[in-house]
Amino acid sequence: MSFDFDLFVIGAGSGGVRAARFAAGFGARVAVAESRYLGGTCVNVGCVPKKMLVYGAHYSEDLEQAHAYGWTAGAPTFDWPTLIAHKNTEIAHLNDVYRLLLTQSDVELFETHARIVDPHTVEVNGERISAEHILIATGTWPSVPDIPGKELAVTSNEAFFLKTLPRRAVVIGGGYIAVEFASIFNGLGAETTQLYRGELFLRGFDRGIREHLRDELVKKGLDLRFKTNITRIDKQADGSLSLTLEDGSLLETDLVMFATGRQAKLEDLGLENTGVTLDERGFIKVDDNYVTTEPSILALGDVIGRVQLTPVATAEGMAIARRLFRPAEYRPVDYRLIPTAVFSLPTIGTVGLTEDQALLAGHNITVFESRFGTLKLALTESKEKTLMRLIVDADTDKVLGVHMVGADAGEIIQGMAVALKAGATKRIFDDTIGIHPTSAEEFVTMRTALPA
User: Which residues does the annotation mark as catalytic?
Assistant: First the structure.
């Protein structure tokens, strides 16, 4: 059977674009449809603009500490519209970059909605287009709890486009998006409260790291309230918002942001016309080759609900392109030892097993830990402490996990991930000469283990 395209990708996020570009580079006839914005969540309402806001929020500390280094300036002021306008300009530029990446790779781009009509056909602008393979890369969308007044709140989608910085903000949730936005609002000067129904945020991260970050955020004035649920939101006559908490108490604020999870973006996709099935969480079910229960349809990235990180989606896109069109170069994605960062203030960087995960896996472990004030802060009045942890297999000496809270944690942990991927032992860490004076050298100078 002859098809219009070898691969039709629905969704131009990082994973979809990577699959499309490399498939085209391997000689396949490829098309991509994107109905919202090129670059997907990460570029438009995710990691890229969020990091820009984090940078903006961190300047408040830099300006405060500058006088210790001899700098004198007038009282600083912050203008939210300026930050958002500059952010929007850069994101528009990145949209153009993604457009060029596709078109220069000989990928046909449809900047409109695509709907699946049958296992080999999509409908675009009323036209039916056939493809041997269809790849779903539509990502996820914020999930908001169904409570009275939920329409008065925003999600991360809208938070990037607020007209003004709120005087008071409440962020609801305990995942990395909630922690990051609470840090952003707090760092930019809003009176910020974070509510989370669990006992401690960032479930799944190393507990020592979670506890340390909690303490540092409290030092910075963030109002953290755990084991707390919201039952309704009401608008007041003056335009402010009143939150009713589960215990009946009220909390007044100017902005409520839900960061309470994300769900697969599948609306009007036409899955009912195929044999594609979902898992119990509502994500598209795929096998190890990212093939759905409909053999001609594949899916990758956040929409399959595995590891929801941009670099993982791009790796999956590469794997799909190679397997389909350059099988001699195919290698599966290795989901072990994936490094990640939480761009809170201070930042978390982590790779490998947490202490609890290592114990659960049956390892006999030794934990090395260091807490210290960085040299940069030595001349200032800041009380911020950096935390570094190494989780080591006591029997093999292999380093199982590296975790950090502190300045540049994401940059430092990227290098640690290479070491762990190569199978580094604690002895190798010890034998590595550090760069002095840096925070990173602490990872190769830790000698005393924590008491068992």
Answer: 436
